[in-house]
Amino acid sequence: MPRPDASQKLADSKPKDGPSKGLIASVVAVILVIGVVAAVFVTQANKSSSYSGGVPKGGTSDATGLRAYPDVKLKAGAPTVDLYEDFQCPVCNQLEKSNGEQILAKAKSGDIKLVWHLMTFLQDNLQNAPASAIAANGLYCAADAGKAAEYHKANFAGQPTKEGAGYSVADIKKFGKEAGITGGALDTFNKCVDDDKYKDYVAKTAENAGKDDVTSTPTVKFNGKAVSNTSQEYNQLLQQPGSFDAILKQKTGK
Amino acid sequence: MSSQTDAPSGTSAPTGWYAHPVTEWIGVAARLILGITYLVAGVLKAQQLETTRMDTRAFQILPYDLANIWGTFMPFLEIVLGVLLIVGLLTRMTAVLGGLLMLAFIIGIASVWSRGILIECGCFGSSGKLPTTAAYKWDILRDVGLLLCAVWLVIWPRTKLSADRALWG
Question: Which residues in chain A have Cβ-Cβ distances shorter than 8 Å to B50?
Fold first, then answer.
């Protein structure tokens, strides 16, 4: 006896068609395309590994920071202290208030080689570009006038109490004036600020800071070794005024 | 999917307690919780890609370039998943992807927690209070909750008020 024709029954019990393969494929394709675009974007942005733009006084030709007091002769075996900061970062300002003077004094006397690495991610985070970048540019302009340390101090002193308020070009010029830049040098400084002269240097140093595995500010490195931001020493540097000398000794023996 | 020929006729709709309408409403809640979270998180991250890339690098899991690529890609993936979940299109597939992504986040957070790394620029906890790793347990708890939403949707992708329902019943 032949089996009864079950095709009707089968069709009835067949689950309804779900999403078409085409739809699934197109969603997957969209996701893949975003991935490829991201990959191309990042690799392209990274390609420009060498730097060929202008260099402020105290800077390096490969844009890896700015030395404070570049004319000071270092004492033998002076350790290098790298400071990674963003002028908009309130915690950096805490470090500045607690230990800024001491750090500068050590740099001025040649006991340490102090290198600032200005970062700009907070303008991205706070959505107030170019506030961080013009402040960093201001420091480099001041460096040309030989007043980088003074500018660094003035800029942090003038950090807005409300985070995110940012800096205007007028603020940056004011900091230059407060740093003691006068006369013709002040004109040059103001022009440098207006022209955003070290724009490329700002971008490249920020990028290089990321390549140094710095992912937060402030980061303090003694002879290339970062102080962990969960350590006791880190908290002391931020919160205990005058703690820098002891921590420098502990970390470098100097 | 057309090989289920042995299903008894008249039972093409699921039966049992999970066929109860409440289940499909729970599915809606799961979709919205997971979907809105992904959409909001994705938009916030996409607005600050530089920071997102930096935070991704801070996990110290991927090498520099890969971390940057992932940090650029991930926010947009989150947006796509979020939108699909909210409208309820391809629910099971998006729930699988969303669940895997959540699993990756949980592993990432557990990894930095165990290594004592602090992912926080330290810039938003002003007033002298510094962030600590103590917050990680809440992050993981939150992500486990979201992962459960995804798991629910993978098991029971049929939900009320969904594009899937409107298009294919």
Answer: 121, 124-125
Going by the DSSP 8-state scheme, the letter that residue A198 receives in this structure is T
pLDDT in tens, A192-222: 999 999 999 999 999 999 999 999 899 999 9
The mean pLDDT value for A143-159 works out to: 97
CA-CA distance, A203 to B21, in Å (whole number)?
56
For residue range A168-190, what is the model confidence (pLDDT) as tens digits? Answer: 999 999 999 999 999 999 999 99
Whether chain B has a CB inside 8 Å of the CB on A232: the answer is: no
Dihedral over Cα of B45, B49, B52, B56: its sign: positive
Structural tokens at position A98? 């607690």
Interchain proximity B51–A125, CB inside 8 Å: yes
Contact state of B51 with A9 under an 8 Å Cβ cutoff = no
Domain count for chain A, please give it.
1
For the domain that residue A175 is a member of, what is the CATH number? 3.40.30.10
Range of the domain at A149: 66-252
Q: What does the pLDDT look like over A6-23, one tens digit per residue?
A: 777 766 666 666 778 888
Q: Is A128 on the interface with B (CB under 8 A)?
A: no
Residues 6 or more apart in contact with residue A228 via CB below 8 angstroms: A234, B116
Beta carbons of A43 and B65 less than 8 Å apart: yes
Nearest CA in chain A to B128: A239
What ipTM is given for this predicted complex?
A: 0.84
Helix residue spans in B7-135 (DSSP H): 21-47, 49-58, 64-87, 91-115
